Amino acid sequence: PSAEMITLLWSFIVSIYSIGGLLGSSSAGYLSVRFGRKKTMLLANIPALLGAALMGLSRLCGSFEMIIAGRLFSGVCGGKLAFPSVYAGEISPKKLRGFINVTSTVFLALGKTVARILGLRELLGSQSLWPMLMASCGVPALVQLVTLPFFPESPPYLLMHKGDQEGCKKAIRQLWGEGQHQAEIDDIMKEKATMKNTKILSVLELVKEPAFRWQLYMIVILTATIQLCGINAV
């Protein structure tokens, strides 16, 4: 293939991750309500492991199409990146919830830093080891797939979406130990009562709602500016 075709192919490989992210994020809300936070995170590991396997074996099979498919599957998993922080926030005690939500951003940045270091030519970014580098994204997915089943489901999800008060209490005791946790349960019940009186807007309804117009403009401008600054290309 010509140099222009090679550039086109690699540009497509880089950008298709965002298409996968769009697919993953668009289905995330439904899956989180249908299956719960914990099961949704477990399901997200499947495309992550599949993508890692495809990219890791691409050179052995001599197929750049496998890299494209692997990037797409990795993007689907990446589209659900909000769920670990949501789950961590919901299972943490109220006094630690803000701290836990902030640390998720710290670990996200730390993960990117580790990936950049591993990508150096002196480490896994060499001519012979780059398939291993691309497959390394499956390691955290495998760790989560093995360890997450030992954690309980989110107590707010059990109480608010499933109406399982006993399951909620059991999950709270498993997470926070024995003791009086009625105050936390009462807070969840209050939040549930508030949600009943709050209409959940669709994307189209949100765009049409005048009360949220300026907030929506600000979010769109900020997000578009981040994309246009070139950080994704870098």
From TrEMBL:
The protein's matches in InterPro entries, at most eight in alphabetical order, are given as: GLUT, MFS_dom, MFS_sugar_transport-like, MFS_trans_sf
Q: What is its main location?
A: membrane
Annotated membrane-spanning segments are 6-30, 42-60, 66-87, 99-118, 130-151
Keywords of this entry: Membrane, Transmembrane, Transmembrane helix
A GO-annotated cellular component: plasma membrane
The protein's location, in the record's own words, is: Membrane
Give a GO molecular function annotation for the protein. D-glucose transmembrane transporter activity
- How the protein sits in the membrane? Multi-pass membrane protein
Instruction: Name the PROSITE patterns for this protein.
Output: MFS (PS50850)
**Is Transmembrane helix among this UniProt entry's keywords?**
yes
Query: Which PANTHER family does the annotation name?
Result: MAJOR FACILITATOR SUPERFAMILY (MFS) PROFILE DOMAIN-CONTAINING PROTEIN, SOLUTE CARRIER FAMILY 2
Protein known as: GTR5 protein
Q: Which organism is it from?
A: Pomatorhinus ruficollis
Specify the taxonomic lineage: Eukaryota, Metazoa, Chordata, Craniata, Vertebrata
